[in-house]
Task: structure prediction
Amino acid sequence: VQLQASGGGLVQDGGSLRLSCAASGGTFSSYTVGWFRQAPGKEREFVAAIRWSGGSTLYLDSVKGRFTISKDIAENTVYLRMNSLRSEDTAVYYCGVTRIVRSSWSFPASYYYWGQGTQVTVSS
Result:
């Protein structure tokens, strides 16, 4: 499966964006889809994940209540709605897929395929 991440951009502090992760050459049906982010000079950090079957979700503590991960079955797309954005959310955001157990969703090494990344910049 190939992943296409999009929706990033420049937004002011407190603003909102919606990222999309679309699948081609396959479906998300047997996967968990995760969003990660990587700021310059930092390691890739888990943000949120959703199991396609059943819809179970997991979030990084610092984004709980601000970010929402969701799926659109008809569009074969996973979304990350980001509200109340802060400067510390600035990073390149990547989506990836895994079939691993929930306890390992937050580790980048658990993911098999990645999208190309989309830049999110929050200006203060």
